[in-house]
Amino acid sequence: MKPRRRLHRRLLAAFAVLTLGVAGLFAFYAIAFVYMVEDRFFVAQLDDEAAYLIQAQAATGGWPAPRSPHLALHTDSAAFPADLRASFAAEPRRREFPGHDGRHYHLLQLSGVDGRPAWLVAEVGDRLVVRPMRQRIFALLAWSGAIVLALALLLGAWIARRTSRPLAELADVVAGLQPGELPERLPAARGDDEIGTLTRGLEALIGRVRTFVAREQEFTRDASHELRTPLTVIRSAGERLAAEARLDDAQRRHLDHIRLSAAQLEQTVTTLLALAREQPLEAAGPTRLLPLIERVIVEQAPLIGERPIRVDLDVTPACTSAHPAAVLHIVLSNLIGNAFAHTERGTVRIDLAGGALRIANRGHAIDDTLRATLHQPFTKREGSAGFGLGLAIVQRLCDRHGIALAIVHDADGSRACVGLHA
Fold first, then answer.
1. What are the pLDDT digits (tens) for 281-322?
2. At CB < 8 A and 24+ separation, what contacts does 401-405 make?
3. pTM (2 decimals)?
4. Domain end call among 136, 169, 201
5. Is 292 within the bounds of a domain?
6. Histidine kinase domain spans which residues (predicted)?
7. CATH number of the domain residue 409 falls in
8. How far, in Å, CA of 357 to CA of 228, rounded?
9. Do the Cβ atoms of 199 and 170 come closer than 8 Å?
């Protein structure tokens, strides 16, 4: 599946948002600046006229008429124009008021020599510069912003392509990596930027993985041949010696130990090789359980030896499992073999319970502190002759193939339940 170009879109979106933000901020500053300049012009005109009026009033004792026709002097706010009077009554501290029919007022309060207030009013509706051209200013800013945004997107697309293309190529290669087909070189490995550094690091890691895979394949191949061949020789020699009638009881016991150890080692090798496979085995069809269990019981029977142990098998011929027969054979060989090895006397029962195969036996009591970790590597009960790897290997194999495995230890013994369906 081709990955979505999320990084490319994010870079473009970041450029677009940044450009819109900067353009909007400067447009706001531009509008505020032109309005502020216009207002400062009218305020300066009012201040200049106010200085003249105050000076004339001080000299003559009365207020003269303003020098400009758009200015008016009022000694009573009731004399204001109607639209200004209403707004001034609502906000007496304000100095700028919009009026009706395009009028606009600037107001400055004066104080004469007699202490009575007066107001200098400038009606500047026909003198406004910004308001008549406001739409053109907004249009100019909008077009300018659109052009800048387009240029920013083009620049962002160029930068995003140069940045994301090597990453996209690298992601495609990494997504298609297979353990048996690891490339020697990756794209974008020659750059001196962060992408090149990342690529070279991945190349080094892939080289190590390639070495590990080759080493594992060599080990699997060598173990399959170098271990199974002598084990087959030991088993065959043991079978021939067992047929000899001249062996005394002590020699036969030693021979049984050799045959049992060889069988356990062969079973462990088979399990480890199953775990070493890259892909889990697929079931060719439903696996019939009864013939498989009977075969496992026969194979593991030497573990019982001379102990008084009875095997109670209660599985119907029609019972099947969805898991591969080879995997079930390994799992059941370990579980049934453990049940045989750890039962001193009594019954090992194999039956069905709740859609699972149950293997129950009475064995040695296990400490509570040991039960929770018994499935971990190198954990074993006291008196066990093994290395504590059996259940850990079985658990890993079940996890690998999606087989539900539950093992319960209590005062009555141990019960292992193997799920029959995926």
1. 565 578 899 999 998 998 888 888 788 899 999 999 999 998
2. 401/280, 401/281, 401/323, 401/324, 401/327, 402/280, 403/323, 403/327, 403/328, 403/331, 404/356, 405/331
3. 0.48
4. 136
5. yes
6. 222-422
7. 3.30.565.10
8. 30
9. yes
